[in-house]
Amino acid sequence: MRMARGIGLLALAACLLLVPAASHGAGFALFEHGARAIALGGAFGATADDPTAIYFNPAGIAFLQGTQAAMGVYFITESSSFSGANPYPGQGYSVDMKSQIFYPPHFYLTGELTPNLHWGFGAYAPFGLGTWWPNEYAGKYISKRIGLQVFNLNPTLSYKLTENLAIAAGVDYFYSAVDLTRSIGVINPYTQQAAEVGQVHLYTDYKGGWGWNVGLLGKLDGGFSIGATYRSNVKVNYTGKASFTQFSTGYADFDAIVASQVPFGSKVGAKTSIKFPDEVRVALAWHGQKWGIEGDVIRMGWSSFKSLAIDMPSEPALSEVRPEDYKDSNSYRLGVEYKASPSLAWQFGALYDKSPVPTISVSPLLPDADRRGASIGASLSLTPKTRLDVSYLYLKFKDRGTEGMNFDNYEGTYKTTANLFGFTVVHRF
C-alpha cells in the first residue's frame, strides 16, 4: 500500500514539472531595450527622442528626422541564494544558483513616409531569462533548470498631428518557447525516503501570438513633455514534448513498478498557453539646455496570469490546472541627464519595481521580489551621425521568504541581486 501511494504521487510530480516555465516568464518582464533609457532608470516615455522610442513610446519617432537605426545588447548576470526553513528543507540548509549570463539584443529602424507620417520597426525581448540550480540540491523535484525566450517583432506608424503632438499605433508579434528540466521523486517504500526515480525535460516549439500598442507624445511650453503608451495582452499557445528518463534506485522491483506508471523512454505531447500582461506607461519630462529630468509610472497587468493549464492528451493523468494568482503591479522610474558638452551627456537613474508574485508562488522556479535599482550611463558622439550609449544598472531584490505558505512545501528565504551592462549604437543615415 505504501508503494502504491508513492507511485500515485509520481503522476502529480510529473505534471507539476510542466508549470515553471510559464510562471518564470510571467515574473520576469525585461525592459533593457536601449542603453540611454536604462541609464535613466527606464524613464524615457516622455523623452523618446531616438529610435528606441519604438518600445518606450512609439509616438516619439514622429519627431525624428530622416532614417535612423539603433542596435545593441545587454549583458545580465544574476546571483541568487536560498536559505532553508523548517519543515523542509530545514534550518541550516543553503544553496546558490549557478551563474549565467543572458544577453537580450535590441534593434530599431525608423524612417519617413511623409513629413508627418513616420514608420518604425523594432525587435527585442520583452520577457525572458531563466534559473539554473545545482543537480543535487534539495529543490530538484521542483526545478533544476528553466528557460523562457520571448522575442517581439514590432512594426509601428506614428503621425504628427501638430508640431508638438504625435500619436502612434503598432503591432506586437511574440515569438516564444519554453524549456524546463526537473527530477521526479517518489517515496521509496524500502527506505521511506524520497527517491530520485527519473528526470523530465519539457521543451516547446517556437510559437507566436499577436498584440497591439498605441502611444501619445506631447511637447508643452517651458521644455516640458508628456507621454503615454499602452501595450495589450499577448497570448501564446504552446505545443511541445515532455521526455522522461528513468534513474535506477537499486531496487529492481520498485524500479519496475515506477516504469509501469510513467512513460519513460518516450516523448509525450503537451499543450499550454501563457497570457503575457498588458502595460500602461505615463511619463512626464522636462528638458533644459544642459539638464533634463523624467519620471515614469508603469502599470503591469499581471492579474491576467491567474492559473496555468497543462494538457497532455495521451497521458490525461498528467494533465493539471495550477493556480498562480499574480497581482497587477506598479513600477516607478526616475532619470536625470546632464549634457556636459555637444558630444557627451551623462545619465543617472533610479527605479522601484513591485513584484507581482504572491508568497504562495515563490519558489526556485521564480525567486522574485520587490526590487530597487540604480543606474548610470553616458552618450558619446563618435561622428556627427553616430552615437554610442553605454549604461550600467544594479538591481537589489528584497529578501523574499516563503512564510510557510509555499505551494510546493519548499520553505525558506531567497536573496537576489543582478548586474546589467549594455550598449546601444544610434546612427542617422
Low-confidence stretches: 1-26
How much helicity do the residues have?
Answer: under 10%
Number of helices: 5
Largest sheet: 14 strands, antiparallel, barrel
Count of DSSP strands: 22
- The CATH topology is given as Porin
Q: Main sheet: which strands, in order across?
A: 1-4-5-6-7-9-10-13-14-17-18-19-20-22
CATH superfamily: Outer membrane protein transport protein (OMPP1/FadL/TodX)
SSE string: HHHHEEEEEEEEEEEHEEEEEEEEEEE
| Dominant shape | elongated
Mean pLDDT: 89
CATH top level assignment: Mainly Beta
Our estimate of the beta-strand percent is over 45%
Question: Structural class of the secondary elements?
Answer: mainly beta
Based on the coordinates given, report the CATH architecture: Beta Barrel
Give the distance, in angstroms, between the N- and C-terminal Cα atoms.
75 Å
Summed up, the domain count is 1
* CA gyration radius, whole angstroms: 24 Å
Give the tags.
Porin; two-stranded antiparallel ribbon; 429 residues; 5 helices; 22 strands; mainly beta; 14-stranded antiparallel beta barrel
3D architecture notes:
There is one protein chain. The relative contact order is 0.20. Helix content is 10%, strand content 55%. Strand 4 (105-112) and strand 5 (117-132) form a beta hairpin. It contains 5 helices and 22 strands. The protein has helices at 2-16, 20-26, 35-39, 53-56, 252-261, and strands at 68-84, 94-96, 101-102, 105-112, 117-132, 145-162, 165-188, 193-204, 207-219, 224-231, 234-246, 267-276, 279-287, 291-300, 307-310, 320-323, 329-341, 344-353, 371-383, 386-397, 400-401, 412-428. Residues 1-26 have low confidence and may be disordered. With 429 residues, the protein is mainly β.
